[in-house]
Amino acid sequence: MKPNYHYKDVAETYLFSTVAKKVSEYSSANPDQKILRMGIGDVTLPLAPAVISAMHEAVDEMSKKETFKGYGPEQGYAFLRESIQSYYARRGITLKTEEIFVSDGAKSDCGNILDLFDADNTVLVPDPVYPVYVDTNVMVGRKVSYMQATAENGFLPMPDETKKADIIYLCSPNNPTGAAYSKDQLQKWVDFALKNGSVILYDAAYECFVTDGAARSIFEVEAAKRCAIELCSFSKTAGFTGTRCGYTVVPEELIFDGMSLRKMWLRRQTTKFNGVSYIVQKGAAAVFTEEGEKQIAENLSYYRENAKAIAACMDECGIPYTGGKNSPYIWLQCPCGMTSWEFFDYLLEKIQVVGTPGSGFGKNGEGYFRLTAFASRETTQEACDRLKALLKQ
Amino acid sequence: MKPNYHYKDVAETYLFSTVAKKVSEYSSANPDQKILRMGIGDVTLPLAPAVISAMHEAVDEMSKKETFKGYGPEQGYAFLRESIQSYYARRGITLKTEEIFVSDGAKSDCGNILDLFDADNTVLVPDPVYPVYVDTNVMVGRKVSYMQATAENGFLPMPDETKKADIIYLCSPNNPTGAAYSKDQLQKWVDFALKNGSVILYDAAYECFVTDGAARSIFEVEAAKRCAIELCSFSKTAGFTGTRCGYTVVPEELIFDGMSLRKMWLRRQTTKFNGVSYIVQKGAAAVFTEEGEKQIAENLSYYRENAKAIAACMDECGIPYTGGKNSPYIWLQCPCGMTSWEFFDYLLEKIQVVGTPGSGFGKNGEGYFRLTAFASRETTQEACDRLKALLKQ
């Protein structure tokens, strides 16, 4: 048997393990120091009460013969797909339930959706980037090229006629930079993709953080239905990182060489997937109830206030940054020309604040640093106080 | 963008939709007739009380900041992998927890594991077969060849030196035939795979139904760790078809061209998957508690009694069959030389019993018919009474 030799080309990423190792070494050497973790991309608030009670009810249903649920539809129960359909409708976007596919999370879909494309396609990803976009393509030997996301373009690269590609990744609001495209900017990407016969994979995992009129869905641009797939998640919206649920929108207008990507994805999911736990789907549907939406909004406000506090701290320190407004991430320029890792060590040594070195996300991330708004209010405020004391000149 | 053209080669399978259509048409035309559904491969008993209470507790943990769980390990929580390790240890099989990967189900793993293999490998599957084995390979353009499972070999094909292959699928106890390999037979397959450098994908989803000393794991054959991956599931063991949890064992001894399949699978799962819901994993771990095992055993006995009743009914009618002993499936030869679909129509028209036509599983399935033990006791008994009245000569 010949193994998939492309796995040899996947770079080992030591980013988060190196961070963990450095923190643990520091902690062992300095057991009395209180370390403030501002690097995590994981939520910390518990699930909303509406979600909890829906899941308890679902567990009870599974305990009785009359209400027990066996295999469900691979693409998700109608009750959840209809809730997602309404969620889009409230933002003026019309989707068919057949275009909505529920999954165990956007990360799974992000990898699995590539099954629909020939290995002989070129891929365009921004730098810096969520490493999964690159690795999943390298694993099948697909050629990856980069577009530059820099301070000059506000970390929002726009189409470049000299950089055509078959598969284009856009993530907005962006991980790691927190920058978010406007509808007008997305229109330009859609025009470019339609002109070149490309497909856009649009990662909308952070859409719920948009507050200032930036786009929340690529389908705000009508013609996007002819060139874009949107990946979305309950992870950040409703704190489902450990509960696992996401969804992907594959419009029926997506036809390439006479092949319907929606039909192909349905075939892929019915063949290689067996649906999401009924209990989890009931919890996810509760996110869209009146009560659920109110509770979710409170949790999001909590994180947004944290983000605002970090952004205000950067303003006070005179440090340039993106994000913090439409995003739980603050992407800041390391002061005094420090590299990402130098700044990491500096913060850890001096004030015991842990963040994520930007260089871990790509070469354009060098000299940048990511802080996140997912810690508790108390941790966030203390971190801001320490940052100000250290960096305010 | 070039779509994956191999999707054009995937046969549309109308088996279960045709069954559903025929039943619904008959039912509309004959609204007073009581139809007995004996074709389903889905469990009907509710989850065990131990599983239910573990999941309630887990939901409660998710409701409090102190016990909330965000991202978990992609390969599954240690508590569950250790329980699975002990489950194998009680059967005399030593596994490392690093060799056990928890997933959202065996169907997902069955498709996703193929990421580890080059497209240029030949695949050997039995006929009749679970269609997923074939379709997932056709989707990447891999060449599929068949080995014949017939009444002559008890539906248990053995290695044939003229039919070499790089990837070999074995499913035991088998879906759809219910036949199960002995340890000695598996030893021959392992020898064959080692001699030819093949990998065996061993589907053990029905292992919990083994009662007569047939093999429950391919790792009962020690050398199998150098050539086999085992896929397993909580679906049939613990009624998790709608709860979604499975696991795959990838031994560290599996090295092909210097590449470790275990490390590759870890890389695949950490890149394209984000773990199973904490709530579901807590439920799955409860399956292995003393209380859980007792309750699960009762449910399995219930289905086994159903299988025994169907088998006894076939004996009384003088109809040859396999399965029913180590399997929830009874694979019977259609009487009077009827084709699978003729017999389907005959049973529906005459006694309103619904089964699954064997021809839907492959050309060797023609003339065969599958009944399942997953219906209620009452339905099963009534179906047996009707079958006897019709078929007993």
Explain what the structure shows.
The structure is a homodimer of 393-residue chains. The N and C termini of chain A lie far apart (63 Å). Chain A is 38% helix and 15% strand. Chain A has a seven-stranded mixed beta sheet with strand order 2-8-7-6-5-3-4, sandwiched between helices. Chain A has a four-stranded antiparallel beta sheet with strand order 11-12-15-14. By secondary structure, the first copy, chain A, is α/β, with parallel strands linked by helices. The first copy, chain A, is built from twelve helices and 15 strands. In chain A, helix 2 runs antiparallel to helix 9. Chain A has helices at residues 15-29, 49-62, 78-89, 106-112, 131-138, 183-196, 235-238, 261-272, 278-286, 290-317, 340-351, 377-391; strands at 36-37, 100-103, 122-127, 143-148, 167-171, 199-203, 228-233, 246-249, 255-256, 259-260, 321-323, 329-333, 353-354, 356-357, 368-372. The mean pLDDT of chain A is 96. Chain A folds into two domains: 5-47 and 293-391, Alpha-Beta Complex (Aspartate Aminotransferase, domain 1), CATH 3.90.1150; 49-290, Aspartate Aminotransferase, domain 2. The interface between A and B is large, with 73 and 73 residues.
